[in-house]
């Protein structure tokens, strides 16, 4: 039996793109595709993302209409899906930790977001868990070695981007 | 009445004392509404640098550019109003731009803190055109010459449009380089001093510092002006002591020509122009009102 991976991928792409075009963009921008301000026509905020989403429609449409029964499409197993979900969940967890670890640990984190060592809490936790977790997902086991690599990758980023620049904030501190 | 006056005096005294004592509770996010390296950005960063050195406050500058300051306003309006978020815009951001955009924001969603300098907004032509007064431009237009009038923000386009009607000149509002005359907000200073550019008119309610003999827009029959200032704002509801302390600190830097910021403001904008407190509230309110009238006049 031919795999139906192209059909599913195409349908998911189409639905996502249509949601972007008809829900997300109209709700998140207020200027439309083009904007007329005082006798001058300018590009609106919605134009670029709408064009991008149209390309996703095109790609999804091609998969659904033209490539649905292609012979050489890869199969999709439940273990594939589990891996994708695991990686997506891990990235989400790492980003949540990066953003919220500081504010959860300290009530007035915003006022400490430029003060060592508090300002590194989210970056160290989120960064380490992201790298360690990705290694573990590939190796299918948790090891001290992967934890050490996670820390060894995160700390130099702090040294590189935070220490030399007085006016730069590491993520997520600019958004706190 | 006496009681009331006493209470008012006491609260004023309390404000004065607490403004002097006020210090930001944490690092101050300094939003800048214009591109890195420009006049607004440079002075905002230099003011912050000076305050870090003299007051021990910590600033974190951040560019929030676009839409003449409205993107900054939108990003700022829900931020904490404890003095840890301020931004540099121009008075036009809360005036014409906010009014014209009609994007659900009004000036009372912000706390104006202090202006630093006014624009020396002139109508400027290259010396090579041979024009020495605005009347020469009108004569050239009457003689059939197409005049390309360069304007950047929409408010200036509206002013150019009115000038076109009044002077019966044929004006093409363009936004690009090859132009016969245009609005310039201070950057013309060196060119005028060197004789490469001519200030044909002041777009302000007052004559230009550098070319006091050039007519004002009012002299040319246009009742609107392009008076504008660089302006620090915060979100609405900022405590009075925070507003007063920030204003005093900023004023201290920009009025001192020995600081880098003060020196820049002296060189580029002809000196500081600091408006704070109730005067600033009144200025912002009247700018917003005047913008409504200008928009109506150019519909």
Topology:
The complex is a heterodimer of chains A (176) and B (299).
Chain A: H1 5-28, E1 34-37, E2 40-43, H2 47-65, H3 78-105, H4 121-139, H5 144-161
Antiparallel strand pairs in A: 1-2
Helix pairs in contact in A: 1-2, 3-4, 4-5
Chain B: H1 2-21, E1 28-32, H2 39-55, E2 59-63, H3 70-76, E3 85-90, H4 91-101, E4 110-118, E5 122-126, H5 134-142, E6 147-150, H6 154-167, E7 171-174, E8 181-184, H7 189-194, E9 197-202, E10 229-235, H8 240-254, H9 260-269, H10 277-297
Parallel strand pairs in B: 1-2, 1-3, 6-7, 6-8
Antiparallel strand pairs in B: 3-10, 4-10, 5-8, 5-9
Describe the structure.
The complex is a heterodimer of chains A (176) and B (299). Chain A is mostly helical and 176 residues long. Chain A is built from five helices and two strands. Chain A has helices spanning 5-28, 47-65, 78-105, 121-139, 144-161, and strands at 34-37, 40-43. Chain A has a two-stranded antiparallel sheet. Chain A is flat and about 55 Å long. In chain B, strand 6, helix 6 and strand 7 (171-174) form a beta-alpha-beta unit. The longest helix of chain B has 21 residues, at 277-297. In chain B, 46% of the residues are buried. The A-B interface holds A 30, 37-40, 108, 110-114, 167, 169, 174 and B 25-27, 58-62, 80, 84, 100-101, 103, 154, 157-158, 161, 173, 175, 298.
Characteristic terms for this protein:
heterodimer, A: 176 residues, mainly alpha, two-stranded antiparallel sheet, 5 helices, 2 strands, 5% strand, B: 299 residues, alpha/beta, 5-stranded mixed β-sheet, 10 helices, 18% strand
How would you summarize this macromolecular structure in one to three sentences?
The complex is a heterodimer of chains A (176) and B (299). Chain A has 176 residues and is mainly α. Chain A has helices at residues 5-28, 47-65, 78-105, 121-139, 144-161, and strands at residues 34-37, 40-43.
């Amino acid at each position: 039996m031919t795999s139906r991976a192209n059909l599913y991928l195409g349908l998911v792409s189409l639905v996502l793109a249509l949601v972007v075009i008809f829900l997300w963009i109209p709700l998140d921008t207020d200027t439309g595709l083009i904007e007329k301000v005082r006798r001058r026509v300018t590009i609106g905020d919605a134009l670029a993302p709408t064009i991008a989403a149209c390309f996703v429609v095109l790609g999804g449409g091609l998969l659904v209409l033209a490539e649905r029964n292609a012979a050489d499409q890869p199969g999709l197993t439940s273990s594939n899906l589990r891996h994708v979900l695991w990686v997506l969940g891990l990235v989400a967890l790492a980003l949540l930790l990066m953003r919220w670890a500081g504010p959860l640990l300290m009530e007035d984190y915003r006022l400490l977001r430029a003060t060592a060592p508090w300002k590194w809490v989210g970056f160290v936790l989120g960064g380490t868990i992201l790298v360690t977790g990705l290694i573990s997902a590939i190796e299918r086991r948790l090891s001290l070695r992967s934890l050490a690599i996670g820390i060894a990758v995160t700390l130099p980023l702090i040294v590189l981007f935070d220490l030399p620049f007085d006016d730069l904030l590491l993520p997520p501190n600019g958004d706190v | 009445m006496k009681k009331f006056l006493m209470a008012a005096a006491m609260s004023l005294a309390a404000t004065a004392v607490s403004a002097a004592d006020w210090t930001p509770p944490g690092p101050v996010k300094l939003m800048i509404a214009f591109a890195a390296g420009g006049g607004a950005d440079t002075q905002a960063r230099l003011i912050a640098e000076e305050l870090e050195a003299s007051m021990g406050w910590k600033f974190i500058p951040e560019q929030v550019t676009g839409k003449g300051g409205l993107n900054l306003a939108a990003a700022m309006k829900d931020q904490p109003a404890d003095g840890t978020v301020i931004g540099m815009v121009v008075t036009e951001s809360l005036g014409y731009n906010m009014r014209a955009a009609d994007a659900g924001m009004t000036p009372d969603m912000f706390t104006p803190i202090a202006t630093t300098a006014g624009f020396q907004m002139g109508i400027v032509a290259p010396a090579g055109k041979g024009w020495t007064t605005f009347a020469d431009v009108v004569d050239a237009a009457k003689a059939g010459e197409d005049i390309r009038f360069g304007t950047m923000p929409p408010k200036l386009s509206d002013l150019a449009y009115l000038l076109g009607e009044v002077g019966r000149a044929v004006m093409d509002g363009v936004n690009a380089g090859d132009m016969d005359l245009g609005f310039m907000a201070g950057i013309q200073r060196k060119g005028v001093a060197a004789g490469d550019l001519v200030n044909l008119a002041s777009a302000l309610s007052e004559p230009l510092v550098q070319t006091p003999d050039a007519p004002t827009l009012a002299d040319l029959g246009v009742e609107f002006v392009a008076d504008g200032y660089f302006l620090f704002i915060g979100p609405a509801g900022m405590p009075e002591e925070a507003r007063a302390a920030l204003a005093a600190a900023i004023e201290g830097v920009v009025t001192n020509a020995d600081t880098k910021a003060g020196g820049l403001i002296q060189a580029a904008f002809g000196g500081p122009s600091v408006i704070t407190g109730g005067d600033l509230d009144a200025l912002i309110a009247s700018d917003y009102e005047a913008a409504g009238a200008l928009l109506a006049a150019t519909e």
